[in-house]
Amino acid sequence: MGAGGATVAVPGHVQQLQRDLRELGFAVISSPDGDFGRYTQWAVREFQIYSRMERVAALDVARLHELTGDPNAGEGASEVAVLGTVPGETPPVSYYVSTLRQVENASPYTGPISGVVNADTRNAIRHWLDNSYRCPVVVEAWNVNRGARTTTFSNGVNIWRHNEMTSGAPRIFYRDFSNYYTYPDTREEGDYHVLGTYSAFGNWGGPASLVPGHTWREEAEMLPQHLINDATTTTALALLPDNATASTYRVVRATAEQECMGAFDSVNAYDDAIVSLGPCHWTLGVLPDGGYDNGELPGFLAYVMHRNLEDYRQAYGNFGLYPSEPWVGQNSGPLWLRGQLKYAGWARVHVEGTEPNRAHDNLAQLQEFDRSADEAAYFKNWHWFFRWVMAGRTVETVRTSMWDMVRMRIRDIRSSNVNINSGGVTINTTMGEIFTSERANAVILRWHIFRPAHVTGARIRTSIANAISGSPRIEWNLAPAQWTDDHETALLTQLLVDANQVNTTQTALSQWPNYAGRNGRAYILGNELGNLRTERNSFNLDTLGI
Questions:
Q1: What DSSP letter does each residue of 259-289 carry, written as one string?
Q2: C-alpha distances in angstroms, 404 versus 266, 411, 443?
Q3: Cα–Cα distance between 455 and 452 in angstroms, integer?
């Protein structure tokens, strides 16, 4: 933390910095205490992010005086935030949002997102103060009635930290003045948009976005045209329901509905994984005791960056986030964990001296982010949650990379070797030769997401052995290529018993798309593509592009 405040180490100077940042809307600092600690560094980092943008918000002083009827009304962001809801406005709006307008940033900051108060950062802060600029993204907690906003929640205007508001009663919305994201034709940037809610999980808690109340139903559901490509619609797949793309999509979609509720913008930042998203719910980190271990989300980030650098910057890089290692290739490089058949890494961020447009060139020169739980919580604050959500809502390569990554995972699982000796039956083959139905492959995929070592190790092989020993009337000594529906049924029955002992939602997955409670999620996709197939050889993996 000391490095961040090196140029403003005098407590009085730090306190003024904190006041200035709060005035500009960066309320991650709760009170100016003169200590350049964690939250002050976060606030500086956030200021550096938003001050790079071409469009920002600015206080409309005349509007403030008009609404309050007070020519001496306080103009600082925290002073306006406490005013709450403007009375009589339809649709409802906070004083804070109502007194902001979008303006051109006349002097964008061009330095690194380092949390260090360098000369360029000091100059940018002065420019913002002189022009009454404000942070262009505002996150607010609202009371709702039948999904519609009514009044702002107590202390719910301009929220930042993941745990500064710990009630699950309000719904969280944002107002975006930045013109940074390209909104779909069906959404207006200038409207309030739903973002999520606060959710608790044991001793943890933070933002969450759940289907259907917090997600963009039409634009962010994992429909085939969003996940695969524009031409691959539900109608197109329904015309060829047994081809590889349709078969793979059913398996992926069934799994995704249990992992990320089948939505690109359904994100989890409320538990000990920092943040998780996507059809495999890739986590930023795992096992926080003593400092986070590597998670799968950085592996996904590396793949997105490999596929399309500009889209990566739009989604993550322009906010100073990079994976710990670059994508080298499939099943190779430092991200690849051969023993668990997955890619995992950690987060890197800018340091002083980083040239933002060249940050991707040498990731090793960037700084690994602090792995402690308190520091890593930076990536689950409400503004980072907003970025995770918006990447899924608006950045095409983020979406289509999910299709690639989950198919690689299925392929690698199916290619893993299986050696079984059970009741006089010896099998030396691959997982994909043993389990050949869509339902079985979906269950195995979910099991691997939840507990990779169970699928790469003995647990699932024991399940196979138990299926063999539990069905002695079936001829298991045949080559797997000659196995029948009876073999698949015996394997699948035992697989579901064992998988449910690890995660009880496997039953719902296996019943897709007809599991209990699905209608309440208001999905666009219904039964058009049919059920997960249970017959032998019904799964056909789409390997195009991987």
A1: HTTTBTT--B-SSTTS-EETTTTEESEE--T
A2: 19, 11, 19
A3: 5
Per DSSP, the three-state class of 513 is coil
What does the alpha-carbon distance between residue 260 and residue 335 come to, in Å, rounded to a whole number?
23
Strand ranges of the sheet holding 133-134, from the earlier edge strand across to the other edge: 100-104, 55-59, 133-134
**Which tens digit of pLDDT belongs to each residue from 106-162?**
999 999 999 999 999 999 999 999 999 999 999 999 999 998 999 999 999 999 999
Which residue's entry shows tokens 């509720």? Answer: 261
What does the pLDDT look like over 445-486, one tens digit per residue? 999 999 999 999 999 999 999 999 999 999 999 999 999 999
The answer to whether residues 531 and 512 touch, using CB atoms and an 8 Å cutoff, is yes
Phi-psi region for residue 142, left (φ > 0), alpha (ψ -120 to 50) or beta?
A: beta
Q: How far is CA 39 from the centre of its chain?
A: 22
Note the pLDDT of residue 523.
98
Average model confidence (pLDDT) for the chain?
96
Residue that the structure tokens 């360098």 belong to = 118
- Short-list 359, 61, 158, 402, CA closest to 260: 402
- How far apart CA 66 and CA 481 sit, in angstroms, is 78
Q: Which helix (H) or strand (E) holds 205?
A: strand 204-208
The two structure tokens encoding residue 162 = 């993941």
Token pair of 396, please? 């095409």
**Are the beta carbons of 392 and 230 closer than 8 angstroms?**
no
CA atoms within a 13 Å half-sphere pointing along the CA-CB vector of 179: 11
pLDDT per residue over 189-221, tens digit each? Answer: 999 999 999 999 999 999 999 999 999 999 999
Closest CA to 347 of 305, 297, 279: 297
- The pLDDT, as a whole number, for residue 144 is 97
**Residue 68 CA to chain centroid, in angstroms?**
39
Cis peptide, bond prior to residue 91, ω within 30 of zero: yes
Whether the Cβ atoms of residue 207 and residue 172 lie closer than 8 Å to each other = yes
